[in-house]
## 1
Amino acid sequence: MDCKLAGIIGIANAAVRIGAALLVFLIPVVLVLHDLRDPNLRSPGIPQSAWRLHRALTPKVERWASKRIESNRAAQLSTSNISGTEWPLFGSVFYLWATESLQNAWETNHPAATVAPKEYARQAIVAAVRLVIDPQQASWVKIHWGTNYLKTENVFYRMLVIAALTSHARLTDDSQYLPMLRDQVESLSSELNASRHGILDDYPGECYPGDVLTAIAMIRRADQVLGTDHSSFLQRAVRGFQDKRLDPRGLVPYAANADRGEPLGPSRGCGNSYVGLFSPEIWPEQARQWYDLYTRFFWQEAWTATGFREFPQDLPGHDWYMDVDAGPVLKGYGFAACAFGVGAARVNGHFEHAFPLATEMFAASCPLPDGTLLVPRLLSNAADAPYLGEAAILFNLTRLPASGMSVHTGTSIPRFTFIVLFLQGGTGLLLTAHSLRGIHRWRKRADEVLTLHCHWQFGIWFCLCATGLCLLLLDHWAFALGALLAAQLLPRLRGQTPTPSSSDKV
């Protein structure tokens, strides 16, 4: 009986490995190869992968946002926990921005056989907006700015509030939040207009001009739902991004001193990609210049990879780096710079940059059959912002060229994309072959295996597998993978299995 139980465990584990090889290695390669053929990656249009991702992400965002609002976790986080405080709200706004873009595309093409994004995603839209404006979620900015946090600088958070409320008005035709939106638009625009240099702090002593620029763009967008006109404010607001407010290369700096109106350090890739996403809709001529300078100083092509650097090429010694905004910087390439560079390039009409970046992003994301992007999910904050990575990718894929931008199509695929797909597919095939061989050996030689406390081992193995499956159903990927990997350590044997006979050898 012990031998039979050991054989069951061995064969089942081999079957799990085959399933993992299919789900994590082989099927993702097929999905990526299929998606790379989409013409909307090379030229204007929303690729089909974005529509699938939005469908898969919508119910998850709704459940997660609703649960987070009901919990008090946000109030327990410290101001130093950037991924726990900022990411949940930023991810929600990414989702809302993407939904707007998909809805606009749906209204333009009006496919008869599908439901409008704003209809099937209505509950997720409502939940995401409620999360962004929930006072409890703003606990970290209250620590910085006090109870007057909606009236005192606090540019990043207030920008998110304006963005979320604008998306809500556009997507739901519900006017309940319009008074709050109007109040935020008027108060923030007045505060920026009255500021000495046209920039304000996100947090006391911390000014990030990219957030200020995005806030200005969101104020302009809000005009469309409020019926207001901030064009004069827009013309004056550009003063915060001219002359000495720029870095020596003529680019928007990553950080600045709001009191003096001076850059603090150089421009960076994560900031430039961010600026490139929103500047074309408010200052198109300036945006063209910034994007040209960005590619001149930050675009890097090697024999393997292509993409944006986190630090400029003429600033040596920054090829390896890591922080919460940039993500990993590997051989100069910035993780965030390249990811959001996809969207920035698309908005500016440069698909010769957007396409190769998108192919690298697709290859590295590992899409699963249920629509989950495994690597972005694992790299997100599982406790506080589990869908940030996928929402960010969805946002970038749904960007379209801004009005008046000339379009340059792209065709080249970097070697990095093929290398990743080759390694991924090769690993899947090797794992499948090894597992099939393992099943064959267990079936032939299970009677010769001596196991230790086999009934106990079987019980532990069964519990680990059941736990892993339950966690998968609950969308807790990291813990589920841990449980299933632990199950692979069984059965433990008293002795080694006999040396395979010549008939077993390949």
Note: The chain has two domains: 2-17+423-499, 37-412.
## 2
Amino acid sequence: MVTKRQLGLLFILLGAGAAVGLFVIDWLGAGQFQGIGPAQRRALLLAGGVVLLGLSLLPLDDRPA
């Protein structure tokens, strides 16, 4: 069974991985914009929201999710 702490850690890893992935895509030169484009900004905000959701689950200890 998954606990809330484990679910929080999973969300943090997914959000951080998504943010890193967006920067890797930008580094590879995919897209039309120099730097961070509007779609990447939205995706970064969403990834940040996922990380914040994960952080909010961490203090809930080992209760089942």
Note: DSSP finds two helices and no strands in the chain.
